[in-house]
Amino acid sequence: MPAIFVRPGQSDDVDAIMKVIAGARAFLGSQNIDQWQGNYPDRAAVETDIANGANRVLVVDGQVVGIASLIQGPDPFYKYIEGGTWIGGPDVPYYAIHRFAIGDAGRGLHLSRAFLTALLSELYSRGVRDVRIDTHPDNKIMQHVVLSNGFEHRGLVYLDEPVPERLAYQLVFGGATE
Question: Against a cut of 0.85, is the pTM above it?
């Protein structure tokens, strides 16, 4: 059985991370999902996430097969939420998980849920109790992964992208209530 683990991304991972993004972009396109069909996420975003210590990679048998970024809020695109509210409001301390993807080498291995669980475990161990994430309305796979990890749908947020609408989710550890 191969070793499977999550670690911070490093500068020498950029090419492998870009390969994961290219595979995810192609997969989304094949599903007629217009998420990531432009230039975003690009190399500059990846390099910035690595430099800021936000990038995480999922490694299977020595190969980077998944990526994500753990971004401390506030996220300007999460300030306004339509059709719902954030538990605790928009300004409580939280982290957002962005740029989550599994590449071609990891597809079909059912790693998304385990990867997200590992990211949540890291955040929890660091004292984070409020985690937010968003996904494209047509990305049913990601919606399933998010909901199966205990997140609740909270409403809609709008990003600065050609198709801006995203389903917004939140997980509050410890049973916080609205």
Answer: yes
Q: Residue 75 domain-assigned?
A: yes
Q: Which of 111, 124, 147 is nearest to 5 (CA)?
A: 111
Considering the domain boundaries, does residue 178 fall inside one? no
* Residue 40, CB-side half-sphere exposure with 13 Å CA sphere: 10
Determine, yes or no, domain membership for 37: yes
* Per-residue pLDDT in tens (0 to 9) along the chain, 178 residues: 689 999 999 999 999 999 999 999 999 999 999 888 888 899 999 999 999 999 999 999 999 999 999 999 999 999 999 999 999 988 899 999 999 999 998 888 889 999 999 999 999 999 999 999 999 999 999 999 999 999 999 999 998 876 689 999 999 998 554 4
Residue 57 · residue 66 · CB < 8 Å: yes
Between the alpha carbon of residue 9 and those of residues 37, 50, 68, 155, the distances in Å are 23, 6, 9, 31
Domain of residue 57: give its range: 4-172
Distance between CA atoms of residues 28 and 40, nearest Å: 13
Question: Domain of 134: which CATH number?
Answer: 3.40.630.30
Q: What is the DSSP letter of 82?
A: B
Quickly count: other Cβ atoms within 10 Å of residue 85's Cβ.
Answer: 12
The tally of domains found in the chain comes to 1
In this structure, is residue 177 part of a structural domain? no
